[in-house]
Amino acid sequence: MNKRTLALTLEEYHDIINTMKKGFSGCRPNNRVATALVIEANLGLRISDILKLKLDDIVKDGDRYRLDITEQKTGKKRVFTVLPELYNYLKIYCLENGIKPHEIIFPIGERNVQKQLKIICDYLEIKGVSTHSFRKYFATSIYVNNDYDIVTVQKLLQHSTPDVTQRYIGIEPQKIEKALKKHIQLI
To answer: Phi then psi for 15, rounded to 5 degrees?
Structure first.
């Protein structure tokens, strides 16, 4: 894990994706990379797993969808729910781009994604960002928006212990600062 890779804020996430979709002088729009990063930020998968996804990998299971994959990095099997909104977002992207359900949705390499992300982040003057920042954004957002439930985040990321997840999202220093602020008694 690269500890220098930061979790994005919501504002940074929006700025990066919107700029990537619109482009700017000297940089064409790149909806493919933007969409791949949106999927990473909403599923919490590593970019290596996102770039292998096919629409057929997402299966209707009753009134919901599920994704059943083996993570490339860890070799761990992962089965989880994909919200209908996210499935429909991907389905529309595939329809608009002529991608058939059995085809890889994002036929690009990780280096291409990183290169495009660097161009956008340099333009926006955002430092410490890599594709992994979108996975960290997912983890941090889930943690904060679900009553600081570290075990839920641990399970979603498939970490071995809550301690690993705490280090991953960098909450240890936050806890220490909060404890110190509650304790201070200046006279």
So the answer is: -60, -45
Residue 155, domain member (yes or no):
no
CATH code, domain with 73: 3.90.15.10
Structural domain containing residue 118: 10-131
pLDDT tens-digit profile, the chain (187 residues): 445 788 999 999 999 999 999 999 989 999 999 999 999 999 999 999 999 999 999 999 888 899 988 888 888 888 889 999 999 999 999 999 999 999 999 999 999 999 999 999 999 999 999 999 999 999 999 998 988 889 989 999 888 898 888 888 876 656 666 666 677 677 7
Which residues make beta-bridge pairs with 70? 77
Q: Which helix (H) or strand (E) holds 79?
A: strand 77-82
> Which residues fall within 8 angstroms of residue 38, CB to CB, at 6 or more apart?
17, 89
- For residue 125, being part of any structural domain is answered with yes
In a domain, 137, yes or no: no
